[in-house]
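Anyone able to model this chain together with adenosine-5'-triphosphate?
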Amino acid sequence: MASIEDFVKERSPLTDIQIHRLRELIADWQLLSDLSFADLILWIPLRKDLVSGPTGYVAVAHIRPTTAATLFPLDVIGDEIAHGERKYIDQALATAEIVRDTEPEPMGDFSVKEETIPVLVDGLVVAVISRHRNAELMRQPSRLELNYREIAHNLYRMITEETFPYMDAGSLFDPTPRVGDGLIRLDINGVVAYASPNAQSAFSRLGWLHEVEGTELGKLAHSVALQSANAQEESLSGGLSGKALKRVEIENAGGTVSFTVLPLLEGENRIGAIVLLNNVTELRRRERELVTKDATIREIHHRVKNNLQTVSALLRLQARRINDPNASAALNEAVRRIASIALVHETLSNTPDASVGFDQVLDSLVTHALELSPRMNELRIERTGLLGSLDPRIATPLALVITELIHNALEHGLAEEGSVLGIHVQSVHPDIQVVISDDGVGLPEGFNIAKSPNLGLQIVRTLTENELGGTLSLISDNKETRAILEFPVTS
Ligand SMILES: Nc1ncnc2c1ncn2[C@@H]1O[C@H](COP(=O)(O)OP(=O)(O)OP(=O)(O)O)[C@@H](O)[C@H]1O
Ligand SMILES: [Mg+2]
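re: yes, here you go
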């Protein structure tokens, strides 16, 4: 969609602040269109001619009402008109006053009433809204229509007084509540002067079967909310008094209704408020469901971690009872490997994300591995790069692979000579590279990773190829040994 800037570039002297304000107006003006059952078009005056004065306007925005049929089935955005072509627009621009009670004029098959509202920013008219309504309708307006129109006029006047759109309303209108979902009009004391049928129904859903009109909305909401077992809203009465722009939610067994309170002003004075209702029961229920699901998944990871810890405790006990030192060492190795897997589940049980913050896992892996090294205090760790979040499908095998490689460096390289353990990771989409290096004794003569019969590197190779779909190479250069692991992130 073209922005206001696209239309006025070079052709209008609007400042950034003025454009910002117009954008805020457009963000909120469905409400105006619906309340006045009218199409609204926003016109921006084009740059004046130094000699002949005003030149014309360009239409930069258009909104159709959801409460009535549109009069403009075709797009009007980008249309231009010359000064003098549409007198009401010229008049609003010149006088900075709303042009009302105009005579209907024929437009196609319809008789249409056009009224205009100047949009002011810091005392200057920067644009004009033209408002088009089918004059045939509403010869005998209902109470709803009368109330909507009165409120609309209030809001139009607030535009000229620069109190609508509300400053900093941003998130309050997101999602924008719709007039059709229920509207309440409050008088200056916060008493309901009018409640649309849908507003009345919203209260019946919440269990209030009496008349809504004539009651003080804050008190009514309070008593309705108290019917719920866990009423938490103590500030309901304050929030719904109509004094300030606010969004409040009422919840009870019947459902959840959101109330958006928009104060109506006349100059500096508050003259009442409108409250837009929105049934958000389903939305909140689904949100809650998602939270529960998240919590369940976290709980499962937590239990898996606990179970793995139990398994490693059993193995450790068994290792202590075995006399054969080889067997007991093997069991202790298994304990260590299980601990690496448990670590990934622990991380998953602590975050709301479905992915694993791997850098944190790597921190713990290094700490655990060093704790087992007799030379822990003499070693220097060089660590570079970050991996960010990884899918658990990658994180678990990767944690195991890295554990093995770090262990080998500590056990075979650094145990004898050397003092630097290097851990370098980098993620260059779509590949991840992990390099574990040491400056110890170097690989044994004739070392061939494919032929190494020991379990450690066999595990590493199997996981690298089968689970990570990557490659592993071990190289010795002088005394330095480097294990280079590479794999793609996209599965
Ligand atoms: N960083 C290293 N520096 C020197 N030699 C290494 C290094 N990494 C591996 N090696 C050599 O490769 C061999 C095979 O390693 P592997 O991890 O498969 O077995 P392991 O460490 O001996 O036993 P485990 O099954 O407990 O891991 C080691 O015995 C060692 O000789
Ligand atoms: Mg090993």
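The two ends are 36 Å apart (CA to CA).
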